[in-house]
Structure formats: structure tokens, C-alpha cells
Amino acid sequence: MAGLKMKAAVVAAIAVMVYFGYFRRKPQYNPAEVAGLRVVVTGSSTGIGEQVAYKFASMGAKVLVTARTESKLQNVVKKCKELGSPESYYVAVSMGSYKNASKVIDMAMEKFGGIDVLILNHVDSGSILGGYQHNVAKIERALMTNTWTHAHMATVALENLIKNKGRIVAVSSAAGMVGVPLQVEYSTSKFALNGFFTSLRQELRFNKTTEVSISLCNLGFIDTDMATNLQKYIHSDLYSKIECAAEIVRGAMMRDRDIFFPDNIVQLSIIKDIIPDYVEKLIREEYHAPGSL
């Protein structure tokens, strides 16, 4: 009987995978609805965040971008305005502290008078790869940048987002769905990020006091500069950051519960709990840099 149940579960999982991978039509938004929205995008001087800012700007949104490098942010703001954003600003700060994270929300409130879309995309690049050595400072830095400042910004902005029936998008990773080697700190922070925002979404719905949507982005290996530098350690195809940004914007506008890119990440989310040993074996085979314990 147990064997039959397992076979039935596998067949059902395959059916769902096929549906989501090949037949599901994703709901689309009206670009006209984006014009005038007040959008904050963190980690937006390069990569996915930069492209998300451009996508919103091209449809007439007001955009505030933030990262550490001022010169890069200046270029992003310039291009946002060229693409059609009526107002674009930047805040050059490191997201390694609550104080700096609060500055971004304060700036948005000062410049825009409110926030309609909060895209939390920043990450500690030092947590991306490296064998686990129980470096407490590294773990704390990863959690602060990759998790706690995301939670802090959402909390600080929440009252205004409730007022505006806004949208929160937390950019996570497949590494927040399954454990991965050589990325213990990064994976841990993404699991924590997912836990916070799924729980916050539940509480908001439980209290029935808000129409704020919370979308979690589950991303694969995207062709950012950071990912390109990691290709010598990881066997994986790179996927377009421009297409990824477009999918994040679509999911945000449609208030999707989960945003997957590329689409095969959906399959991972389905099978990881059905055949966990096999999935973990496949993941280990993706990596070929020796770790240190």
C-alpha cells in the first residue's frame, strides 16, 4: 500500500510539473497600471535589480534605487529617466545595518510621499560561495544583509503599504528551497528570508486588515556579474537577467504568491520533498569546488 501511495505521489508530481512547465498560461498585467506607481528597488546598481528598475521606469513608474556604489546608481537613475520615469532617485548605502535600511524608506517617503511597490533584492556578495568554516561574523553578516534588513524595510514601510494596498517582493533563491554545498551562509539566509515573508503573509491574511501582497521570488542561476564569476565552480546554465526582471515585474503586478524563474524551478519546488535524496544528489553534482569544513 505504501508503495502504491508513493507511485501515485510521483505520478501526481510529474503531472503538476508538466502543467506548470509547459501548459500553464501566466496571467498578464496592463502596463498602463504601472504608470505613476512609486517603486523602491534595492540592490539595483547592477544585475537583476537594475533591470527591474528599468522595466518599471519604461512603463512610467517613479523609481528609487539603492546600492553601495554611487556612480553606478547615478547611471541607473539617468537611464530610468530616459526610459520614461517621471521621477527617479538613488540612495547610496550599504545594507549591512538597520539604520541604512531605514534611510531608503525615509527617502522614498520624502521624495514620493509613499510606496506602492517594494522590491527587496539586495544581497551580501561575500556569502555567495565558500566552504563552511563556522565563521560567526560571516554568518551574522549574511543574515543581516540577506534577511534582517529585508524584514526591517518591509516592517518600516508596512503601515504605508497597507494604506496604499501595496506590493512587497522578496527576491530569494532556489538555495532557499533546498540546501546547497559551499553556500551554507547564503542558503541559510534565504531559508530565513522565505520563513519571515511567508509567515508575515499568513499573519496579514489572518488579521484580515490589509490587501498588501507578498511575493517570493525563487530564482535559479541568472546571468549577473556575480553569477558569471561563479560559473567555474557550478555546472549550470545562465538565464537572462532581463527576462528574469520582466517576470519579477509581472509577478509583482499580478500579486503572485510565488514567482519562479526559470520555469524549471517550479519542478524543483514540487519534487524536493517527494524524492529529497535524489534532488540533493543532483545538486551536489552541480558543484565542483572543494569545500573546507
Describe this structure in words.
This protein is an alpha/beta fold. The protein has one domain (29-286): Rossmann fold, CATH 3.40.50. The protein contains 10 helices and 7 strands. It has helices at 2-23, 47-58, 70-83, 98-112, 136-164, 184-207, 225-230, 241-253, 264-271, 276-286, and strands spanning 38-42, 62-67, 88-92, 117-120, 167-171, 213-219, 258-261. Strands 3-2-1-4-5-6-7 form a 7-stranded parallel sheet, sandwiched between helices. Strand 5 (167-171), helix 6 and strand 6 form a beta-alpha-beta unit. Helix 2 (47-58) packs parallel to helix 3 and helix 5 runs parallel beside helix 6. The longest helix is centred in the middle third of the chain and has 29 residues, at 136-164. The protein is globular, with a radius of gyration of 19 Å. The model has no long low-confidence stretch (mean pLDDT 89). InterPro entries: 11-beta-HSD, NAD(P)-bd_dom_sf, Sc_DH/Rdtase_CS, SDR_fam.
